[in-house]
Amino acid sequence: MRKQLPLKISVSGVRGIVGESLTPQIATRFASAFGTYIGQGQILVGQDSRPSGVMLKKAVLSGLLATGCQPIEVGILPIPTILFLTKEKQAAGAVVITASHNPLDWNGLKFIGPEGLYLKASQVEEFLDIFHQGEFTFVKADRIKPVIQEKKAGELHLQKILNRLKVKTIKNRKFRVVADCANGAGAILLPQFLQELGCEVLFINTEITGSFAHQSEPTPENLKELCRKVKEFKADLGLAQDADADRLALVDEKGRTLGEDLTLTLAVAHVLSKKKGPVAVNLSASMVIEDLARKYQVPVFRTKIGESNVVEKMLETKAVIGGEGNGGVIWPEVHPCRDSFAAAGLVLEFLAESGKTLSELAQGFPKYYMIKDKLSCPSELAFRAVLELRHRYEKETISTLDGLKIIREDSWVHLRPSNTEPIIRLIAESKSAARTRTLIRSFKKELVDIIKKLSL
Known about the structure:
The chain is an alpha/beta fold. It contains 15 helices and 20 strands. The relative contact order is 0.10.
Protein backbone atom coordinates (compact mmCIF):
# COMPACT_ATOMS: atom_id res chain seq x y z
CA MET A 1 0.00 0.00 0.00
CA ARG A 2 1.54 3.28 -1.07
CA LYS A 3 1.88 6.14 1.36
CA GLN A 4 -0.71 8.87 0.75
CA LEU A 5 0.91 12.08 -0.43
CA PRO A 6 -0.35 15.23 1.27
CA LEU A 7 -2.24 17.99 -0.50
CA LYS A 8 0.25 20.52 -1.85
CA ILE A 9 -0.83 24.08 -1.08
CA SER A 10 1.30 26.97 -2.31
CA VAL A 11 1.21 30.35 -4.03
CA SER A 12 0.76 28.32 -7.25
CA GLY A 13 -2.54 26.89 -6.02
CA VAL A 14 -3.58 23.47 -4.75
CA ARG A 15 -2.51 20.08 -6.12
CA GLY A 16 -3.06 16.53 -5.00
CA ILE A 17 -3.80 12.98 -6.08
CA VAL A 18 -7.46 12.63 -7.03
CA GLY A 19 -9.43 10.47 -4.63
CA GLU A 20 -6.70 10.67 -1.99
CA SER A 21 -5.53 14.13 -0.95
CA LEU A 22 -7.78 15.91 -3.48
CA THR A 23 -11.47 14.99 -3.16
CA PRO A 24 -14.74 16.64 -4.23
CA GLN A 25 -15.29 17.75 -0.63
CA ILE A 26 -11.90 19.48 -0.53
CA ALA A 27 -12.52 21.15 -3.91
CA THR A 28 -15.91 22.44 -2.76
CA ARG A 29 -14.39 23.88 0.43
CA PHE A 30 -11.67 25.67 -1.54
CA ALA A 31 -14.25 27.06 -3.98
CA SER A 32 -16.44 28.23 -1.08
CA ALA A 33 -13.41 29.90 0.52
CA PHE A 34 -12.52 31.58 -2.76
CA GLY A 35 -16.09 32.75 -3.34
CA THR A 36 -16.18 34.17 0.18
CA TYR A 37 -12.82 35.88 -0.31
CA ILE A 38 -13.43 37.31 -3.79
CA GLY A 39 -17.05 38.47 -3.29
CA GLN A 40 -20.28 37.68 -5.08
CA GLY A 41 -19.29 38.38 -8.67
CA GLN A 42 -18.83 36.46 -11.89
CA ILE A 43 -16.12 33.79 -11.73
CA LEU A 44 -14.69 32.06 -14.80
CA VAL A 45 -14.33 28.30 -14.38
CA GLY A 46 -12.09 26.39 -16.77
CA GLN A 47 -10.10 23.16 -16.86
CA ASP A 48 -7.42 21.21 -18.66
CA SER A 49 -8.13 17.87 -20.34
CA ARG A 50 -7.69 15.50 -17.38
CA PRO A 51 -10.56 12.99 -16.91
CA SER A 52 -11.00 14.10 -13.29
CA GLY A 53 -11.62 17.67 -14.44
CA VAL A 54 -15.37 17.29 -14.89
CA MET A 55 -15.84 15.81 -11.42
CA LEU A 56 -13.80 18.56 -9.74
CA LYS A 57 -15.48 21.24 -11.84
CA LYS A 58 -18.90 20.20 -10.50
CA ALA A 59 -17.54 20.45 -6.97
CA VAL A 60 -16.08 23.89 -7.67
CA LEU A 61 -19.33 25.11 -9.20
CA SER A 62 -21.22 24.00 -6.08
CA GLY A 63 -18.84 25.87 -3.79
CA LEU A 64 -19.03 29.06 -5.86
CA LEU A 65 -22.82 28.96 -6.24
CA ALA A 66 -23.27 28.42 -2.52
CA THR A 67 -21.43 31.68 -1.79
CA GLY A 68 -23.48 33.75 -4.24
CA CYS A 69 -20.99 33.84 -7.12
CA GLN A 70 -22.07 33.43 -10.74
CA PRO A 71 -19.81 30.90 -12.47
CA ILE A 72 -19.04 31.33 -16.18
CA GLU A 73 -18.05 27.96 -17.61
CA VAL A 74 -15.44 28.33 -20.38
CA GLY A 75 -14.69 24.61 -20.73
CA ILE A 76 -11.28 23.20 -21.64
CA LEU A 77 -9.03 26.17 -22.42
CA PRO A 78 -5.32 27.02 -22.08
CA ILE A 79 -4.60 28.64 -18.75
CA PRO A 80 -3.07 31.79 -20.33
CA THR A 81 -6.35 32.21 -22.22
CA ILE A 82 -8.34 32.05 -18.99
CA LEU A 83 -5.99 34.53 -17.28
CA PHE A 84 -6.42 36.91 -20.22
CA LEU A 85 -10.21 36.49 -20.33
CA THR A 86 -10.62 37.15 -16.60
CA LYS A 87 -9.42 40.72 -17.07
CA GLU A 88 -10.90 41.13 -20.53
CA LYS A 89 -14.39 40.20 -19.32
CA GLN A 90 -13.99 42.16 -16.07
CA ALA A 91 -14.77 39.07 -14.01
CA ALA A 92 -14.26 39.04 -10.25
CA GLY A 93 -11.85 36.12 -10.63
CA ALA A 94 -11.37 32.62 -12.00
CA VAL A 95 -10.79 29.05 -10.88
CA VAL A 96 -8.89 26.69 -13.17
CA ILE A 97 -8.91 22.94 -12.60
CA THR A 98 -5.44 21.81 -13.67
CA ALA A 99 -2.30 20.12 -12.37
CA SER A 100 -0.05 21.51 -15.11
CA HIS A 101 2.80 19.02 -15.76
CA ASN A 102 1.92 16.57 -12.96
CA PRO A 103 0.96 12.97 -13.90
CA LEU A 104 -2.61 12.08 -14.85
CA ASP A 105 -3.64 10.88 -11.38
CA TRP A 106 -3.01 14.40 -10.06
CA ASN A 107 -5.23 17.43 -10.40
CA GLY A 108 -5.43 20.82 -8.78
CA LEU A 109 -7.02 24.23 -8.49
CA LYS A 110 -5.53 27.58 -9.46
CA PHE A 111 -7.09 30.80 -8.22
CA ILE A 112 -7.05 34.03 -10.21
CA GLY A 113 -7.90 37.58 -9.15
CA PRO A 114 -9.80 40.27 -11.11
CA GLU A 115 -6.67 41.55 -12.90
CA GLY A 116 -6.21 38.15 -14.52
CA LEU A 117 -3.24 37.41 -12.23
CA TYR A 118 -2.63 34.63 -9.72
CA LEU A 119 -3.17 35.68 -6.14
CA LYS A 120 -0.14 37.23 -4.44
CA ALA A 121 1.37 35.53 -1.39
CA SER A 122 -0.41 37.96 0.98
CA GLN A 123 -3.73 37.34 -0.78
CA VAL A 124 -3.22 33.57 -0.66
CA GLU A 125 -2.65 33.86 3.09
CA GLU A 126 -5.98 35.69 3.57
CA PHE A 127 -7.80 33.23 1.31
CA LEU A 128 -6.32 30.22 3.13
CA ASP A 129 -7.33 31.68 6.49
CA ILE A 130 -10.94 31.55 5.31
CA PHE A 131 -10.46 27.98 4.07
CA HIS A 132 -8.89 26.68 7.29
CA GLN A 133 -11.37 28.47 9.58
CA GLY A 134 -14.34 27.34 7.47
CA GLU A 135 -15.96 30.76 7.73
CA PHE A 136 -17.82 30.76 4.42
CA THR A 137 -20.44 33.31 3.40
CA PHE A 138 -23.28 31.08 2.19
CA VAL A 139 -26.37 32.65 0.59
CA LYS A 140 -30.05 31.68 0.68
CA ALA A 141 -31.71 29.79 -2.16
CA ASP A 142 -33.22 32.87 -3.80
CA ARG A 143 -29.75 34.41 -4.23
CA ILE A 144 -28.18 31.46 -6.06
CA LYS A 145 -27.43 32.58 -9.61
CA PRO A 146 -27.55 30.54 -12.83
CA VAL A 147 -24.36 29.16 -14.37
CA ILE A 148 -23.41 30.86 -17.66
CA GLN A 149 -21.94 28.84 -20.55
CA GLU A 150 -19.34 30.72 -22.64
CA LYS A 151 -18.27 29.26 -25.99
CA LYS A 152 -15.44 30.28 -28.34
CA ALA A 153 -14.10 32.63 -25.68
CA GLY A 154 -10.49 31.82 -26.61
CA GLU A 155 -10.57 33.69 -29.91
CA LEU A 156 -10.18 37.02 -28.08
CA HIS A 157 -6.85 35.85 -26.69
CA LEU A 158 -5.52 34.74 -30.07
CA GLN A 159 -6.55 38.01 -31.70
CA LYS A 160 -4.68 40.04 -29.07
CA ILE A 161 -1.47 38.14 -29.91
CA LEU A 162 -1.98 38.36 -33.68
CA ASN A 163 -2.52 42.12 -33.43
CA ARG A 164 0.99 42.43 -31.97
CA LEU A 165 2.82 40.24 -34.48
CA LYS A 166 3.94 40.91 -38.04
CA VAL A 167 1.53 38.33 -39.39
CA LYS A 168 2.24 39.07 -43.06
CA THR A 169 5.99 38.58 -42.56
CA ILE A 170 5.39 35.25 -40.82
CA LYS A 171 2.96 34.11 -43.54
CA ASN A 172 5.47 34.90 -46.26
CA ARG A 173 7.95 32.46 -44.74
CA LYS A 174 5.44 29.58 -45.20
CA PHE A 175 6.67 27.64 -42.18
CA ARG A 176 6.30 23.89 -41.97
CA VAL A 177 5.60 23.03 -38.33
CA VAL A 178 4.99 19.91 -36.27
CA ALA A 179 3.01 20.69 -33.12
CA ASP A 180 2.66 18.41 -30.09
CA CYS A 181 -0.22 19.52 -27.85
CA ALA A 182 0.32 16.66 -25.37
CA ASN A 183 -3.45 15.89 -25.55
CA GLY A 184 -3.87 19.01 -23.45
CA ALA A 185 -5.78 22.27 -23.46
CA GLY A 186 -3.56 23.80 -26.17
CA ALA A 187 -5.18 21.54 -28.76
CA ILE A 188 -8.32 23.67 -28.53
CA LEU A 189 -6.71 26.81 -29.99
CA LEU A 190 -3.29 25.99 -31.48
CA PRO A 191 -4.63 24.76 -34.86
CA GLN A 192 -6.51 28.04 -35.36
CA PHE A 193 -3.52 30.12 -34.24
CA LEU A 194 -1.02 28.48 -36.59
CA GLN A 195 -3.52 28.60 -39.47
CA GLU A 196 -3.82 32.38 -38.96
CA LEU A 197 -0.02 32.57 -39.28
CA GLY A 198 -0.04 30.69 -42.60
CA CYS A 199 1.80 27.62 -41.31
CA GLU A 200 1.56 24.17 -42.84
CA VAL A 201 1.18 22.02 -39.75
CA LEU A 202 1.35 18.37 -38.80
CA PHE A 203 -0.39 17.98 -35.44
CA ILE A 204 0.27 15.14 -33.01
CA ASN A 205 -1.41 14.34 -29.69
CA THR A 206 -4.32 16.73 -30.22
CA GLU A 207 -7.14 14.42 -29.13
CA ILE A 208 -8.90 15.51 -25.94
CA THR A 209 -9.25 11.94 -24.69
CA GLY A 210 -8.52 12.54 -21.02
CA SER A 211 -5.21 10.68 -21.21
CA PHE A 212 -1.75 11.88 -22.20
CA ALA A 213 0.23 10.22 -24.99
CA HIS A 214 3.32 11.00 -22.93
CA GLN A 215 4.04 12.84 -19.70
CA SER A 216 2.89 16.36 -20.41
CA GLU A 217 5.98 18.23 -19.19
CA PRO A 218 7.73 19.42 -22.41
CA THR A 219 11.18 18.08 -21.50
CA PRO A 220 13.51 16.31 -23.99
CA GLU A 221 12.73 12.79 -22.75
CA ASN A 222 9.03 13.37 -23.51
CA LEU A 223 9.51 14.76 -27.03
CA LYS A 224 11.00 11.80 -28.91
CA GLU A 225 7.95 11.42 -31.15
CA LEU A 226 8.02 15.14 -31.97
CA CYS A 227 11.72 14.98 -32.90
CA ARG A 228 11.05 12.04 -35.23
CA LYS A 229 8.05 13.71 -36.86
CA VAL A 230 9.96 16.97 -37.48
CA LYS A 231 12.54 15.06 -39.54
CA GLU A 232 9.90 13.00 -41.38
CA PHE A 233 7.81 16.08 -42.21
CA LYS A 234 10.93 18.10 -43.13
CA ALA A 235 9.61 20.80 -40.87
CA ASP A 236 11.24 24.11 -40.00
CA LEU A 237 10.60 23.49 -36.31
CA GLY A 238 8.58 21.59 -33.74
CA LEU A 239 6.45 23.14 -31.01
CA ALA A 240 5.59 21.32 -27.77
CA GLN A 241 3.08 22.54 -25.20
CA ASP A 242 2.38 21.21 -21.72
CA ALA A 243 -1.08 20.14 -20.52
CA ASP A 244 -2.37 23.63 -19.70
CA ALA A 245 -0.44 25.33 -22.53
CA ASP A 246 1.49 27.94 -20.59
CA ARG A 247 4.91 26.45 -21.47
CA LEU A 248 6.56 25.89 -24.86
CA ALA A 249 9.57 23.79 -25.85
CA LEU A 250 11.21 23.79 -29.28
CA VAL A 251 12.68 21.22 -31.65
CA ASP A 252 14.92 22.49 -34.46
CA GLU A 253 14.75 21.59 -38.15
CA LYS A 254 17.23 18.74 -37.56
CA GLY A 255 14.88 17.08 -35.08
CA ARG A 256 16.88 18.06 -31.99
CA THR A 257 15.39 19.29 -28.73
CA LEU A 258 16.85 22.65 -27.80
CA GLY A 259 15.94 22.79 -24.12
CA GLU A 260 13.14 24.81 -22.60
CA ASP A 261 15.46 27.68 -21.70
CA LEU A 262 16.02 28.48 -25.37
CA THR A 263 12.35 29.44 -25.75
CA LEU A 264 12.82 32.19 -23.18
CA THR A 265 16.20 33.17 -24.65
CA LEU A 266 14.73 33.63 -28.13
CA ALA A 267 11.79 35.65 -26.81
CA VAL A 268 14.04 37.93 -24.73
CA ALA A 269 16.49 38.48 -27.60
CA HIS A 270 13.72 39.24 -30.09
CA VAL A 271 11.77 41.65 -27.88
CA LEU A 272 14.89 43.52 -26.70
CA SER A 273 15.97 44.01 -30.32
CA LYS A 274 12.78 46.00 -30.84
CA LYS A 275 12.11 47.54 -27.44
CA LYS A 276 14.70 48.09 -24.72
CA GLY A 277 13.59 47.70 -21.14
CA PRO A 278 14.06 45.65 -17.97
CA VAL A 279 13.90 41.85 -17.99
CA ALA A 280 12.61 39.72 -15.09
CA VAL A 281 13.28 35.98 -14.81
CA ASN A 282 13.45 33.45 -12.02
CA LEU A 283 16.58 32.22 -10.26
CA SER A 284 16.84 29.07 -12.41
CA ALA A 285 16.81 30.75 -15.83
CA SER A 286 20.00 30.53 -17.88
CA MET A 287 22.97 32.88 -17.52
CA VAL A 288 22.45 33.78 -21.17
CA ILE A 289 19.77 36.24 -20.02
CA GLU A 290 22.49 38.36 -18.39
CA ASP A 291 24.50 38.17 -21.62
CA LEU A 292 21.55 39.53 -23.59
CA ALA A 293 20.90 42.23 -21.00
CA ARG A 294 24.51 43.42 -21.26
CA LYS A 295 24.23 43.50 -25.04
CA TYR A 296 21.17 45.76 -24.92
CA GLN A 297 22.28 47.58 -21.75
CA VAL A 298 19.17 46.79 -19.72
CA PRO A 299 18.78 45.49 -16.14
CA VAL A 300 17.85 41.93 -15.18
CA PHE A 301 15.80 41.15 -12.08
CA ARG A 302 15.86 37.63 -10.59
CA THR A 303 12.93 36.31 -8.57
CA LYS A 304 11.81 33.27 -6.63
CA ILE A 305 10.49 30.35 -8.69
CA GLY A 306 6.83 30.67 -9.60
CA GLU A 307 4.98 32.59 -12.25
CA SER A 308 3.32 34.95 -9.79
CA ASN A 309 6.71 36.01 -8.41
CA VAL A 310 8.05 36.84 -11.87
CA VAL A 311 4.86 38.66 -12.86
CA GLU A 312 4.92 40.75 -9.69
CA LYS A 313 8.52 41.82 -10.40
CA MET A 314 7.72 42.52 -14.06
CA LEU A 315 4.85 44.82 -13.13
CA GLU A 316 6.94 46.52 -10.45
CA THR A 317 9.89 47.19 -12.81
CA LYS A 318 7.84 47.70 -16.01
CA ALA A 319 9.76 44.85 -17.66
CA VAL A 320 9.22 44.46 -21.41
CA ILE A 321 9.77 40.68 -21.40
CA GLY A 322 10.41 37.94 -18.88
CA GLY A 323 9.47 34.50 -17.77
CA GLU A 324 10.75 31.23 -16.42
CA GLY A 325 13.40 28.96 -17.89
CA ASN A 326 10.93 26.07 -18.20
CA GLY A 327 9.59 27.47 -21.47
CA GLY A 328 7.28 29.93 -19.74
CA VAL A 329 7.51 33.20 -21.69
CA ILE A 330 5.72 36.25 -20.26
CA TRP A 331 5.05 39.00 -22.81
CA PRO A 332 3.17 41.78 -21.00
CA GLU A 333 2.01 43.42 -24.24
CA VAL A 334 -0.47 40.53 -24.49
CA HIS A 335 -1.01 39.73 -20.81
CA PRO A 336 1.37 39.30 -17.85
CA CYS A 337 1.31 35.51 -17.69
CA ARG A 338 3.22 32.52 -19.05
CA ASP A 339 1.82 31.96 -22.53
CA SER A 340 2.88 29.29 -25.04
CA PHE A 341 0.92 31.03 -27.83
CA ALA A 342 2.70 34.36 -27.33
CA ALA A 343 5.98 32.44 -27.14
CA ALA A 344 5.29 30.60 -30.41
CA GLY A 345 4.33 33.87 -32.11
CA LEU A 346 7.54 35.60 -31.03
CA VAL A 347 9.72 32.67 -32.13
CA LEU A 348 8.04 32.48 -35.55
CA GLU A 349 8.37 36.25 -36.02
CA PHE A 350 12.08 36.11 -35.03
CA LEU A 351 12.66 33.30 -37.54
CA ALA A 352 10.73 35.08 -40.28
CA GLU A 353 12.51 38.41 -39.85
CA SER A 354 15.98 36.88 -39.53
CA GLY A 355 15.67 34.52 -42.50
CA LYS A 356 17.63 31.96 -40.46
CA THR A 357 16.83 28.43 -39.38
CA LEU A 358 16.11 27.67 -35.74
CA SER A 359 19.45 25.90 -35.30
CA GLU A 360 21.25 28.95 -36.72
CA LEU A 361 19.45 31.25 -34.29
CA ALA A 362 20.32 28.94 -31.40
CA GLN A 363 24.01 28.97 -32.36
CA GLY A 364 24.05 32.77 -32.13
CA PHE A 365 23.89 32.75 -28.32
CA PRO A 366 26.69 32.01 -25.82
CA LYS A 367 26.72 28.27 -25.14
CA TYR A 368 25.87 27.01 -21.68
CA TYR A 369 25.02 23.50 -20.55
CA MET A 370 22.13 23.11 -18.13
CA ILE A 371 20.91 19.95 -16.44
CA LYS A 372 17.63 19.69 -14.51
CA ASP A 373 17.25 16.79 -12.13
CA LYS A 374 15.19 15.87 -9.10
CA LEU A 375 15.52 13.79 -5.98
CA SER A 376 12.53 12.13 -4.31
CA CYS A 377 12.26 13.30 -0.74
CA PRO A 378 9.42 13.68 1.76
CA SER A 379 8.42 17.34 1.98
CA GLU A 380 9.13 17.49 5.72
CA LEU A 381 12.77 16.44 5.09
CA ALA A 382 13.36 18.42 1.89
CA PHE A 383 13.52 21.83 3.56
CA ARG A 384 15.75 20.56 6.37
CA ALA A 385 18.14 18.94 3.90
CA VAL A 386 18.54 22.10 1.84
CA LEU A 387 19.03 24.15 5.01
CA GLU A 388 21.79 21.78 6.15
CA LEU A 389 23.49 22.15 2.78
CA ARG A 390 23.23 25.93 3.06
CA HIS A 391 25.32 25.86 6.25
CA ARG A 392 28.06 23.95 4.42
CA TYR A 393 28.35 26.54 1.63
CA GLU A 394 27.66 29.79 3.48
CA LYS A 395 31.22 31.05 2.79
CA GLU A 396 30.55 30.96 -0.99
CA THR A 397 28.42 33.41 -2.98
CA ILE A 398 24.91 32.15 -2.39
CA SER A 399 21.29 33.23 -2.75
CA THR A 400 18.68 32.00 -0.28
CA LEU A 401 15.82 33.82 -2.00
CA ASP A 402 14.35 30.44 -2.97
CA GLY A 403 16.02 27.34 -1.59
CA LEU A 404 19.78 27.54 -2.11
CA LYS A 405 21.61 28.84 -5.17
CA ILE A 406 25.39 28.60 -5.15
CA ILE A 407 26.83 31.10 -7.64
CA ARG A 408 30.35 30.70 -9.00
CA GLU A 409 32.27 32.57 -11.67
CA ASP A 410 31.15 30.47 -14.64
CA SER A 411 28.61 28.10 -13.11
CA TRP A 412 25.76 27.82 -10.61
CA VAL A 413 23.70 25.19 -8.82
CA HIS A 414 20.15 25.72 -7.57
CA LEU A 415 18.63 23.32 -5.03
CA ARG A 416 15.01 23.86 -4.12
CA PRO A 417 12.30 21.84 -2.36
CA SER A 418 9.33 21.70 -4.74
CA ASN A 419 6.11 23.45 -3.76
CA THR A 420 4.03 21.03 -5.82
CA GLU A 421 5.70 17.59 -5.45
CA PRO A 422 7.59 15.64 -2.72
CA ILE A 423 10.96 16.21 -4.39
CA ILE A 424 14.03 18.43 -4.29
CA ARG A 425 14.77 20.02 -7.66
CA LEU A 426 18.41 20.30 -8.71
CA ILE A 427 19.44 22.57 -11.57
CA ALA A 428 23.02 23.32 -12.61
CA GLU A 429 24.56 25.28 -15.45
CA SER A 430 28.10 25.88 -16.67
CA LYS A 431 30.09 26.32 -19.90
CA SER A 432 30.96 22.61 -19.97
CA ALA A 433 28.60 19.65 -20.22
CA ALA A 434 31.01 17.50 -18.20
CA ARG A 435 31.30 20.17 -15.51
CA THR A 436 27.51 20.47 -15.23
CA ARG A 437 27.11 16.68 -14.91
CA THR A 438 29.76 16.67 -12.17
CA LEU A 439 27.97 19.43 -10.28
CA ILE A 440 24.65 17.57 -10.37
CA ARG A 441 26.21 14.26 -9.29
CA SER A 442 28.16 15.89 -6.47
CA PHE A 443 25.28 17.85 -4.97
CA LYS A 444 22.82 15.00 -5.43
CA LYS A 445 25.14 12.70 -3.47
CA GLU A 446 25.47 15.30 -0.69
CA LEU A 447 21.71 15.61 -0.45
CA VAL A 448 21.21 11.84 -0.34
CA ASP A 449 23.71 11.57 2.52
CA ILE A 450 22.04 14.41 4.42
CA ILE A 451 18.55 12.92 3.96
CA LYS A 452 19.76 9.53 5.24
CA LYS A 453 21.17 11.16 8.38
CA LEU A 454 17.99 13.19 8.93
CA SER A 455 15.88 10.03 8.55
CA LEU A 456 17.67 8.18 11.37
